[in-house]
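Q: What would this chain look like folded?
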Amino acid sequence: MKSAILIVALILVSCGKQEPQEQKAQEPKPAAVDAGPAIEEMISKLYSGMERAYNVGGIDTDSLLNANFEADVLYVTPWGWTEPLDSTKARLRNAFGHVRDYSHRMESLRVKVFGDAAYAFFILRQQYTVDGGQLDEYLPTTFVLERRGEKWKIIHAHRSTDYETIQQYVALQRQRAAKKK
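A: My prediction, written as structure tokens:
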């Protein structure tokens, strides 16, 4: 009889301990926030800001880049150079007065988030006039991003281009050289 009471007590104790664990396992976990749309919006605002800066003015492109890029980011340019962010800022500042009628569109934007890290890939198409010559750029672009508190920062940027865009760059340089003569 004592053994039967002991067995029943052990069963009750073990069942009592499992119940809260089972209930805990059944409780819904908080849904993870999908950061993809926020990153897409960030990238869209970056290029919309650049478009306003070139066409309307009144936008500090250094501040625009600082808001989106980590300070020590290295940018791999379409022509294969790796440049620090300060060089990119200087290049953009020097473009003012030369670039007219700038427009852009992004194609095939894909964002993949891994916790506090993410990457974004897209085709950036830029059309503009520079020093009288028309450029229509095709620029496959990859950004690597890291979450910083509630914001995302681009920590690596890589851009390539196609043969046709490179030929446009070469023609523009020839045009500039001919004007200097």
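Residues 36-180 form a domain with the Nuclear Transport Factor 2; Chain: A, fold (CATH 3.10.450.50).
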